Amino acid sequence: xxxxxxxxxxxxxxxxxxxxxxxxxxxxxxxxxxxxxxxxxxxxxxxxxxxxxxxxxxxxxxxxxxxxxxxxxxxxxxxxxxxxxxxxxxxxxxxxxxxxxxxxxxxxxxxxxxxxxxxxxxxxxxxxxxxxxxxxxxxxxxxxxxxxxxxxxxxxxxxxxxxxxxxxxxxxxxxxxxxxxxxxxxxxxxxxxxxxxxxxxxxxxxxxxxxxxxxxxxxxxxxxxxxxxxxxxxxxxxxxxxxxxxxxxxxxxxxxxxxxxxxxxxxxxxxxxxxxxxxxxxxxxxxxxxxxxxxxxxxxxxxxxxxxxxxxxxxxxxxxxxxxxxxxxxxxxxxxxxxxxxxxxxxxxxxxxxxxxxxxxxxxxxxxxxxxxxxxxxxxxxxxxxxxxxxxxxxxxxxxxxxxxxxxxxxxxxxxxxxxxxxxxxxxxxxxxxxxxxxxxxxxxxx
Length: 447
What we know:
The protein is mostly beta strands. It is built from three helices and 29 strands. The protein starts with a strand and ends in a 13-residue tail after the last helix.
């Protein structure tokens, strides 16, 4: 079969790197009927086939952690049996079809066909980072690149604390350092489950980054034994963290409790027992009882943390203080004692539970538990008096009612005594007037 004539367009490279046909000058070439390829500068180029097809190669960027395996894939959308090859950033051929000219055994062929060349790179290092080129041997050749990005996790994560042992109320400094990472890490702080805010600084050494984050923390007694956590956010690693436990010393916390009487009623002649408890770090070594407003009574017995008064009297009234101290400082708790008179009547049986707890700078009053009992006794007495008065008034009303019922309508007067026997009216008047001299005859009685 005779060779057919074909006119091929010139080829211009655009700014984006793609090649397109530009019909500036028409040049005719002969095509062989057996090879189906053009000869000359137009060999392998099909004007009709390139129209609307655009770039025929496909690949993707690769992100890999240092030491892992990276896979590079060069794919052809519409294969025409053209040769595919892969080049490194120095434009050295890694694979030409299924042949590896480069003597780097870390590159291994994963798959080869007319439509794909897939190669793996093991034990990736930072030096392997860069652009790798996929080429399709058409005429003119097509080319596309893929970028390998190598991530390096922090090599070391360390917390440095300014003071190993802190005192309550102090501000301490903690520093967390993540060394030799790529890209730079993000450091987050946590105290227990609460996130805190630190201040970070980044230093770059060649292609590596070292990040240091500073945290200023004011500590209290509640922070003793709480972990402070430094956590790293980095695309190459998950859940990378380190922690340090805080050790905080604090002065004692003092509490005074009343053991007896249980009901809290401190009456004359009865015993009183108090207990002092103190907690601190370090544990308090010195504990003592004293009376704030006067000297301690002679009959008061102090045994360690306990204070006992076997027979209360009015002279025991006052404020009793328990003091405790350690290497950090001294604290105290007060108990105010008020002694009541002994009971004169026995109130109805009641069950009362009173708990008295004293913390530093807090005063416990022994009268606090008495008010309920005293109010109940007063109410009983008032109720009895009211009942007696009401009963007496009812009895008086009944007696008066019976008396008035028996003497109803009776009225006696001696004012006109003697007038009844007079012969006429003048004599009656004279007798009545003369009768006024006798005081006993003129007395009137009202009932």
